[in-house]
Input
Amino acid sequence: MRKVFNKILAVSLAATMTFGIAGCSSTPKETTKGTENAKTTEAVSTQAQTITGDLSNTLVYAGESESTINPILNNHDELPDLIFSGLMKYDGNNKPICDIAEKYDYDQANETYTFTIRDGIKWHDGTEFTVDDIVYTYEVLTKDETLSASILSNYEDIDTVTAPDAKTVVIKMKKHNAAMLNYFTMGILPKHLTEGKDINTMDFNQNPVGTGRYKFVEWDNAGGMIILEKNNDYYDKVPNIEKVVYKTVSQESTKATMLQSGEADLAWLNANYAESFRGNDAYKNIDYTTADYRAMSMDFRTDFWKKNGDSIGVLNYALNKDAIIAGVLAGKGVAAYSPIQLSNFGGNKDADIYSYDLNKFASEMEKLGWKKGSDGIYERNGEKFHFTIQVRDYEEERVDIAKICSSQLKEAGVDMEVVLVTKFDWEAGYNGFLSGYAAQFDPDQFYSNYVTGASSNNMEYSNAEVDKLLTEGRHAASDEDRQKAYSEFEKVYAQAPGVVLVAFLEGNYVSTKALDGLDTTRVLGHHSVGVLWNIENWTLNK
Output
């Protein structure tokens, strides 16, 4: 196994040296706001991350770089789900079930949710949890005009949140929202620690206090790790594993090295690194289904796409997606044609309108008015078909995807320039980025991404028909009507996309053989997030 691993590592390092710096991300919002005393950590060496003491019941997880553990600001990470609790939580089938709420009622006629809250919940600092904390959190989400968060569009249909007594919270909606139970999984903030502070920048974001399964202990910025311990006062099943050490690691090769050397017990790896451990009895390969796609997301704030947005979809004809999956993803993925194709209500094959066909590409380009210049690159209105895609350097798999897409497009006559960056620069004028997103729970998760002016629509994609269909899907009264809206959305979006979809990934985790209890039932999200959903049932016997 070591020879296979070293071969893959050598190839990866060679590619990195060739391109300089690489990378990519999913959410531009992540880097638009700074934080007080921000502790963004990117471990480049495992030597600085030595952990001492008895580790026999401590899970060392090679995670990712972090700057905040506030569930409102960081809704795509494992840590908020461990530390915080919501009215609801997700089960293994990706469905919302009761959590802090012991039950709820929905009055459809009055568009009102009534939640009955559990007894005996305490914040990790020992303070009693109250319904006022819930009211406060939802008022932050719906009334704080200074809040900058990608999820705000998920809560725009809430009218009022009240607590008529110490056991009850009533949420009145402006209109029906078919996905609302999903958004009630949002972690609740402690009013006594955060009221009156700037939610975007408060110190609490790096020193969180929640009510969840694990308590925050320390953020060792120099050592590159976040330390948690189990919450013995947790209102539900207390975990078996005493501590979780979340190592903040960016480099994919570093995660693989940490597993190989015994410095980590669990890590999400790209497909090729994961393959290097397969068949070794010292490790377990745990493969999940995900709804996580990779794509070139185009920035419609830039002049190139303002003028040439009509030529995004046709690029699909020039991409051999199956070859990319076979090579970069070691076959661990499926070709993508719709952002919601792996979601419930998704997968309309009538939206699968592009195939790899260079002749078709050429004919469609001609219809759009593009002509090849003497250098073989298409031109229209005196401008070359040249655009830039930024990719973050430490995400090797995305760098490889971007490089192959660039090569295939160049062969077809399109000059896609891959710009490797250490951190995304959203004001530099790049024409897009190699993105990743997922809607593993409900297709409405993409409402905030694709609806004009929505809270996570950072690339400013706008299509009136898409807006209409996603709004219909959100407010539809029946599953049948939702299915109709989302099926039509897939067809409309395929005709006028804002991204060039490449592939949906499998979620390839590797663990030490000492770790048991991981449940692959759940479909995971972006960066295969959600693996810790049932950590209370895990055991570790080092």
